[in-house]
Specification:
5 helices
Length: about 220
């Protein structure tokens, strides 16, 4: 009984502190444009966060989209469970992007094997790199409650090209973004939370491509 009481006291002591930190972060103004790699200027997007499109590019006029193998630009995890989840995330991200984008039918085919690309096809290539990653911690989520600590982290930088010509870039961050993840008491498996985040990113990417191709406003 004493142990449970101590846990509750600690949890509700931490929560107001974290809330104050988040409030202060939220007060900082964010610019409408952000500098990206190679001198590009990102603009803010309501779902993907940072995007850049070449002038006049709208994803139309191409037969196929080839999604290359996901690369990693983070330090090698020291713990085996973290390393295993990172390797799983590489493959799952590619798979879900392909599925979500294919449904929108902007391209006749969305491919994940370079050998399937037809020589005569007009093809776009999407290369993704995981630039931030963390498995997350159930115990940290338990102590911090719904204030975000212990959530898995995933940040992806993507670049779409036609040959050597860059046409689209994005940088998108996810960290337990679903309502279920924010209220998770700590015992939901980290891979399940990461799965939700990757699914969410894939759907947002597919929506962006489809809305841009149809010249629809972002929702």
């Amino acid at each position: 009984m004493r142990t449970n009481t101590a846990r509750l006291i600690r949890r509700f002591t931490i929560a107001p502190t974290l809330a104050g930190v988040l409030l202060l972060c939220g007060c900082a103004s964010t610019p409408s444009t952000l500098t990206g790699p190679g001198g590009i200027t990102y603009r803010k997007d309501p779902h993907l966060q940072k995007i850049w499109l070449a002038e006049g590019f709208d994803f139309q006029g191409y037969d196929s989209l080839y999604i290359a193998e996901t690369q990693v630009a983070v330090p090698s995890p020291k713990k085996s469970q973290e390393a295993e989840m990172l390797e799983w995330a590489r493959g799952y991200l590619r798979e879900q992007l392909a599925k979500a984008i294919q449904v929108k039918a902007v391209f006749a085919s969305v491919l994940t094997r370079e050998s399937d690309v037809k020589p005569e096809a007009k093809v776009l290539k999407l290369e993704n790199t995981i630039i931030k990653f963390a498995k997350g911690s159930g115990s940290a989520r338990f102590w911090a409650g719904e204030f975000g600590a212990g959530q898995p982290v995933l940040c992806v930088h993507g670049k779409m090209t036609a040959g050597d010509k860059p046409l689209f870039q994005f940088e998108s961050f996810r960290s337990g973004d679903s309502a279920a993840a924010r209220l998770d008491p700590g015992w939901t498996p980290e891979q399940k939370l990461q799965t939700r985040d990757i699914n969410d990113l894939a759907v947002d990417m597919a929506d962006f491509i489809a809305q841009t191709a149809k010249h629809q406003p972002r929702k």
